[in-house]
Design a protein that fits this description.
Layout: H1 2-21, H2 25-36, H3 42-54, H4 58-71, H5 74-85, H6 96-108, H7 112-124, H8 132-143, H9 148-160, H10 168-179, H11 184-196, H12 204-216, H13 220-232, H14 240-251, H15 256-268, H16 276-288, H17 292-306
Helix pairs in contact: 2-3, 3-4, 4-5, 5-6, 5-7, 6-7, 7-8, 8-9, 9-10, 10-11, 11-12, 12-13, 13-14, 14-15, 15-16, 15-17, 16-17
């Protein structure tokens, strides 16, 4: 009982100190750093880190996370690990060794975000040997805690048969869980399985329903897939104009497969006037954005142009 009273008194004193010393800029900085290293200040610390990130103050963002991570906060460890996975002119070069270190610590404490990000490393061979079995186990642990990203990725592994037997029924179930939480990639993938009749009875209406939910969030794959339904007249009246409109939405986001598809329309004169030069332009964009089909078609259309 006395110990509980002591803890309550200590917490009250700490709270009063935070309030008291937050009156000057210098004191605020010191008390914020101090709070990050104590249990009572963890929520405040994560909020400060988020604020610093939103303000593009990445040094302060990283500093708060490092203090909190060293204290043992699994959420801060997950954020810090993901930070080291990223790279651009603002954040600096990737450091997979540090990412692995912090994500392992977070995952070991059962943090679903740490587990999911660590699974990404094993799935994509980021600084480690590719290991689908480890990725599968980590996504599963995270998915069971309701993480929609992990539900999607675990569903994808079932759909592809990575580290498990291919099982579209399981994939559908996991995609649906993530899709119902609003995860656009899962919505697009769920729609695709409905369109293909894999793990579920083929249903173009359901496919379009899920594609549209994802497309409204700007998901380029869903936009491309809607275009394909219009292009092929599956579940809707065939409409090349609307198909092209949807392809362009995805292509404008530098989605290579959509750019390659538009190139094909121009090459074949399908829904548009045949134009090999325009086809070449779209194939070049598609190839630049990682579309293997775009690269292959680019070489073929170049030969067609030469032979004109």
């Amino acid at each position: 009982m006395n110990r509980n009273k002591y803890s309550m008194k200590k917490s009250l004193i700490i709270t009063l100190l935070i309030t008291l010393f937050s009156t000057t800029a210098c004191s605020k900085q010191k008390i914020n750093e101090w709070a990050c290293g104590h249990k009572i200040g963890q929520e405040r610390c994560l909020n400060l880190a988020e604020k610093a990130y939103n303000n593009k103050d990445y040094d302060t963002f990283k500093k708060y996370l490092e203090i909190s991570s060293n204290y043992g906060n699994s959420q801060a460890q997950a954020h810090l690990g993901v930070f080291y996975q990223q790279t651009d002119e603002k954040l600096g070069e990737k450091d997979y060794q540090k990412a692995l270190y912090w994500l392992q610590k977070s995952a070991e404490q059962g943090n679903k975000y740490g587990q999911s990000a660590l699974a990404d490393m094993y799935s994509n061979a980021w600084g480690v040997e590719q290991d689908y079995s480890k990725a599968f186990d980590l996504y599963k642990k995270s998915a069971e805690q309701g993480d929609m990203r992990s539900q999607f990725h675990l569903g994808y592994m079932y759909a592809k048969g990575y580290a498990t037997q291919q099982d579209y029924v399981q994939a559908i179930e996991l995609y649906r869980k993530a899709a119902e939480q609003g995860y656009a990639d899962a919505q697009a993938s769920l729609g695709y399985l409905y369109a293909e009749g894999k793990g579920v009875q083929q249903d173009y209406k359901q496919a379009m329903n899920w594609y549209q939910k994802a497309a409204e969030k700007g998901n380029p794959r869903a936009q491309l897939l809607i275009g394909i339904l219009y292009n092929e007249g599956k579940g809707v009246k065939q409409d090349y104009v609307r198909a092209l409109q949807w392809y362009e939405k995805a292509a404008n986001q530098n989605y290579g497969n959509a750019q390659a598809t538009i190139g094909l329309m121009y090459e074949n004169g399908e829904g548009v006037e045949k134009n090999l030069i325009k086809a070449q332009e779209y194939y070049q964009k598609a190839c630049h954005n990682g579309s293997n089909g775009g690269c292959e078609n680019l070489e073929l259309v170049k030969q067609k142009i030469v032979n004109l």
